[in-house]
Amino acid sequence: MVGASAKRTLSVRREVFPIRGTFRISRGAKTEAHVVVAEIDDGGVVGRGECVPYARYGESMDSVVEQIEGVASAIAAGLDQEGLLDALPAGAARNAVDCALWDLSCKLTGQPIWQVADLEAPLAPVVTAYTLSLDTVENMAAAARASARRPLLKLKLTGDGDLERVTAVRENAPDARLIVDANEGWTLEHLKRYGDAFAKLAVELIEQPLPAGRDDDLLGFECPVPLGADESCHDRSTLDELRGKYQVVNIKLDKTGGLTEAMRLKAAAEAAGFDIMVGCMLASSLAMAPGVVIAQGAKLVDLDGPLLLAEDRKPGLRFEGETVFPPEPSLWG
């Protein structure tokens, strides 16, 4: 982390990226990705960060922009990543500002993010899942057929009819690894009904089957497929509640409130015996780039946001199939 300059100014803007087709999960559908970008200018050197306000967590575009604007004077006065942890709560606004500070540190020092963040080695490419959005059995079968060459598919599910959906995907993508995400859309009865069947279909993870805050039913429940915490896991303060319920935690920068807390959550989760998944909201390469840092050594990676857009930010991350390469400094870090 680099010391602040009195020349620093923080600005914020809204951007929209059209999605390729329609993206559906158990809570609804969207055709556009709405993001907020924070920029910190230090004497003409600019650091950027991107976030996605998420209504599920009580956020809106307006509220996130207001939060970011609210720390502008503190940034000008020298607020750094450590101070930001106290200045803003975990969430999208802090994520955008935190990632902008990390990017600015890289730009000012001329060092790549792995050195600025004191990592042991340069960032390596990672393989991302590719998401099939929730749809009819027939449409998800067709989507699986079109994506059968992809090594890891993530299926959005909803409850009733999900066994038929997963069976159809497996039949049409026999060689792909599969993970599924209920986005809080199941009951314990769904989990009991699907667990053994999904294990036979070689599903590797069931993500957030029950609603966050109402997942105590998972205590003592033995599922043949590992369970992952997404909506139930935000930052380190939520980690203790996951013990005995989940085996995997899904780290997303918009939940942790940036890379600073994400790195600490990852270390704490690993020390507690959890496997790591790195996820994303639907956004551009600028939002994914810091996720590549957390994705180093993770068991599962889901940074496919740019692959689901009709057009990504330029310059963006380099994708070769499902392989995501570390960001170039012209993008972030």
TrEMBL record:
SUPFAM superfamilies registered for this protein in UniProt: Enolase C-terminal domain-like, Enolase N-terminal domain-like
Gene Ontology BP terms: amino acid catabolic process
Active site per database record: K156, K252
Family stated for the protein in its record: Belongs to the mandelate racemase/muconate lactonizing enzyme family.
SMART domains: MR_MLE
InterPro entries: DgoD-like, Dipeptide_epimerase, Enolase-like_C_sf, Enolase-like_N, Enolase_C-like, Mandel_Rmase/mucon_lact_enz_CS, Mandelate_racemase_C, Mandelate_racemase_N_dom
Keyword Ribonucleoprotein belongs to the record: no
Gene3D superfamilies: Enolase-like C-terminal domain, Enolase-like, N-terminal domain
Cofactor entry: Mg(2+)
Cofactor binding summary note: Binds 1 Mg(2+) ion per subunit.
Species of the source: Skermanella stibiiresistens SB22
Top EC category: isomerase
UniProt keyword terms in alphabetical order: Isomerase, Magnesium, Metal-binding
Residues given in the record as Mg(2+) binding sites: D181, E207, D230
GO molecular function: magnesium ion binding; racemase and epimerase activity, acting on amino acids and derivatives
Keyword Metal-binding: yes
Residue span(s) of domain Mandelate racemase/muconate lactonizing enzyme C-terminal: 137-228
A Pfam family of this chain: MR_MLE_N
NCBIfam families the UniProt entry points to: racemase_DgcA (NF042940)
EC number: 5.1.1.-
Name assigned to this protein: Dipeptide epimerase
Organism superkingdom: Bacteria
